[in-house]
Structures
1.
Amino acid sequence: MARRLLQDMKERFERLRTPFYYYDTALLAETLAAIKSETDKHEGWHLHYAVKACATPQVLRLIQQAGFGCDCVSGGEIKVCLENGFPADEIVFAGVGKADWEIELALEAGIQYFNVESIPELEVIAEIAKRMNKVADVSFRINPDVGAHTHANITTGLAENKFGISVDDMIHVIRIAEQLPSIHFVGLHFHIGSQILQMDDFEALCHRINDLQVLLEAEGISVKNINVGGGLGIDYENPDEHPVPDFKAYFETYAKHLQLRPGQHLHFELGRAVVGQCGSLITRCLYVKQAKERQFVIVDAGMTELLRPALYGALHKVQNISSLSTPQTYDVVGPICESSDIFAKDCLLPETKRGDLIAIRSAGAYGETMASQYNCRELPKAYTGE
Ligand SMILES: *Cc1c(COP(=O)(O)O)cnc(C)c1O
């Protein structure tokens, strides 16, 4: 399976109703192989794909076949993973607000472990597990108070963020867990944010974990699993130059700086880096509108199909795959009745006409999964492969 340029897909795309998501499964396979080649050399390393990035069945199945487990943040995600062949005992379950039915579902299915984010949550899991005559394996999500150089809305590991349990409370919650017969403490979990491209941020997390391990040892507490979350970023500006993220640098950072104890397992939860570059949102130019000092390309996809630009001011490369004419400057906007429904400002595109196919690149992660039906729109379809 060779990767193909989007321009080569034009004929097929012309027959499909826009907007839709297109996933390049050849690139996904290449990405999965790149990850495996870095991690297979380490014993006791486990990969869990963060399903919230993209839960399209064709994509999930390829990831499952590559031997990944998954990281879920809702009962719905657990169901989707089970339906797509992931073994229950390779599913980990995080989230600050797990509902009772989601906890029951996870215990019933027999997931690997919960990533617990508060004492009240621990108590509810203990109660439900006891009622179901089960013992719940739990890891604690610790908020390491490590900043990440990324968008403010997607840092998660600072003391001010809502996620996790503070470092100061760590020993206390483990002691509580040890007293609960329906709870089995199995590890520590961390996740400092998303779209992180500076390896120093992950290195800082390693140093923090090393310090915590020393503290725990002094207390006689042993930890089976260290889960470092995900967060590796992708190159949104140059998807063709960097279709596969720098997994070597990422995994080597952990191999070099994290001091695992003998027999300890290391878990990763990558989302964006696995699927981000393989997806494009394919849309069509409806109108080119000349306004005062601005030219708008109005496309048939909007923030309902891809929310990231409106939500985070995120940048996606926009490409006209129908035209090779002389470039002009456009604002590329959607049809939704919101001023933030803008994909790109001052974007250089070949001269664009009504009917041209436009690809919004690097949309494989947090694209389709965030789609909404605002304005009574239909959810986008997804296509893969050739
Ligand atoms: C979202 C999330 C991830 C994946 O993050 P990426 O930046 O997409 O790699 C991993 N772990 C947890 C707990 C998450 O919430």
2.
Amino acid sequence: MLLTNNLTVNEQGHLAIGGVDTVELAREYGTPLYVMDEGRIRLACRQFKQSIDNYYGGRGIAHYASKAFCCKEMCRIIADEGLGLDVVSIGELYTAMSVNFPPERIGFHGNNKTEEELRYALECSLGHIIVDNLTELETLDRIAGEMGKNARIMFRVKPGIEAHTHEFIMTGQIDSKFGLALENGEAMGAVKRALAMKNVTLGGLHCHIGSQIFDIDPFVMAADVMLHFIADIKEQTGYEVEELNLGGGFGIKYTEQENPSAYDLYMQKVSDKVKNTCAALKLKQPYIVIEPGRSIAGPAGITLYQVGSVKKIPGVRTYVSIDGGMTDNPRYALYQSRYEAVCANKADAPRDQTVTIAGKCCESGDLIGKDMPLQQVEPGDILAVLATGAYNYSMASHYNRIPNPAVVMVKDGTSRLIIKRETPEDLIRCDL
Ligand SMILES: *Cc1c(COP(=O)(O)O)cnc(C)c1O
């Protein structure tokens, strides 16, 4: 039933995370409550780092994609683990800079960065700005000139790989709003333009083929396509790209049925491909960046709710209503994502009924999931939804003017608040 080894059932029959009783957490901090396990976050960071050390001689780095879960404490942990950071907005960058995240390890993504964002990125002297399109390239060159700066950039390239994942999060193919296409010469044109610019230095190439991908082959194919592009650039311009960013997208286990590959296997296969292709094309082996988001934050988190009404509609379904929903976890509403749920205070009982877990918003689509196995629950029980560490807090909204939950970090049997619960006063703070 349980998904990760940091989740256990304690002597009281309660679900525990990182050695902390979740029923106690709900009592102490209230619900809904996001709980993140620091040990699990650090473990994932180290696994990525080790796999780069083992298979690619340490000539690379993992950048945590902060959009998965971004707050000051997460940035501190990522910095402490020696990883880099991806940001996609002024808010994520501001959060990172507020805890003195080393700017040279930050990459700034996005398909439509504003001038304000580009200026801020230049002020911060980031490692790379990952340029998405020609308009952005021209703007950046101009702004950098005005500011007396030189912008280190990468280009986002669409390698034309279709990863087998949800259509909405499939971004490697030509019909995508992200990046420059290879097929029609758009990417090559941008490279040549950048090489001719005074205020821009081309540092590398980037691709990101999608998210929640289980199959390693698309990643390997993308690496191959990118290396061939590097060879083409070298042939046409004499310039050899030294850094290759292969993006993120590693799948995680949300339900019992899912079986993601080990990160180790990913790095092993991708490294082999890079080494072989470089030898065949007579290229230097590039420095490699990978950008895991979900796989670092996702399995580390759970969300705790309190059960309100339990509505049994005979012959139809049983609705278990909770005190949160799409405002703290919109992923079912967005993608029909699947989750596992456990009654935290009855975690040792069998999950012998099938329920639909419903949120409290004025939307019929406000569900955490349909037809989920669950223990017999009653009003007042604590419900835990598992593997919610990524794309939950970061996608939270204020629909129905519902305040965002608090976030608690657990570590070695202790807990600490890392994001305060919002209050109704917080919600009217910007109202005039
Ligand atoms: C979202 C994103 C990632 C992280 O994706 P995950 O599926 O969370 O690993 C990495 N790089 C870029 C450019 C992204 O947009």
3.
Amino acid sequence: MPGYELFGAAERKEVNDVLETGILMRYGFDGMRNGIWKAKELEAEINKTFGSQYAQLVSSGTAALTTALAALGVGAGDEVIMPSFTFVASFEAVISVGAIPVLVDIDETLTLDPEAVEKAVTEKTKAIMPVHMCGSMARLDELKAICEKHDLILLEDACQAIGGKYKGKYLGTIGHAGTFSFDFVKIITCAEGGVVLTNSEDIYKKADHYSDHGHDHAGKDRGADLHPFLGYNFRISELHAAVGLAQVRRLGEFLEIQKRNHGIIFNTLKNVEGLTFRVIPDADGDTGTHLSFFLPMEDMARQAVTEFVAAGIMGNFYWYDNNWHYIRKWEHLKNGAWLHRFSEEQKKGIMHYANQPFPISDKIISRCISSSISLLWTPEQAQERADKMAAILKNVIAKNNVTA
Ligand SMILES: *Cc1c(COP(=O)(O)O)cnc(C)c1O
């Protein structure tokens, strides 16, 4: 799954270009950098690869979401509808701009259930944030229709789905804005980094300014820049961008291996009676970072995970017990143990929505296992793993059916 598995000569070459000049900052120092502009080059490469018109690199995926929200005009008191199953960064970003994350149920796509979204729309709703979890996509047509009906912003958190497509378009380029993360465990990495994608010049310009203290990057030099839009420092460094440049050029290679290994595991597990699979709105666009499947009951999923570990088969995520990806364990969100001071309105809103029951999501996530797909497996190794997993799953399902 992650790009770090295939880190090598190409990444070192790009980093060395930067080390030769010693100019580690992405802006300025024009005369000293010998024409080396890795962040700019990576932004151009991202636009070329994904067909977006504008790309703004930042220091992380969380910074990308925060920057995108600010550039989209989401702020104090606004509600952002997002799924109960995501990485915590999605709601952190919403909270950091003063807005309120409205968590709603997922369906068997493992992300937003459009019906739950429709029900959650209020007069305060400003945006819908689908999260393309575990390499695959949300029901974007339905979500887009809801956005159009209620005049809402669509912000795609595509941090885990770089290179995935929906009906021919890259995930992250379909909404008003989208984000990727290049942190160390993502499909491509630059150690720490992220990007905001958009086809709107206005949103792009604001993202550009927001991520660099408001600099409009239009002056003769940095000192002569103006600041039409307030900002912070979410800049990426040239060193990080250099790694990302090598990695984005290898994305096609990574996806090919990943999809091959994903196919091997899927073709074996699909024969296990009683096992069902995550619904994928456009199967051709799946990146294959994980194969996510459901057992008939929570107990069976727990047993299977335990037996995988006992058999030395690692990398199977049971999200229901995970501290970082599912609402059940987000006490820090539910109990309002805030580090910062928030307005009473925001705090009340956050705690209200975070403390709703999620019986539908519980029923889905408690039966779900996401099996991560490595770039390092040969086809033979993938097949061997698949066979071992299938045997365990068959056994777990049969055993429980006998006693049921
Ligand atoms: C990783 C991730 C992020 C945040 O990215 P960082 O680069 O780690 O800050 C946001 N959303 C999702 C769904 C992620 O998986």
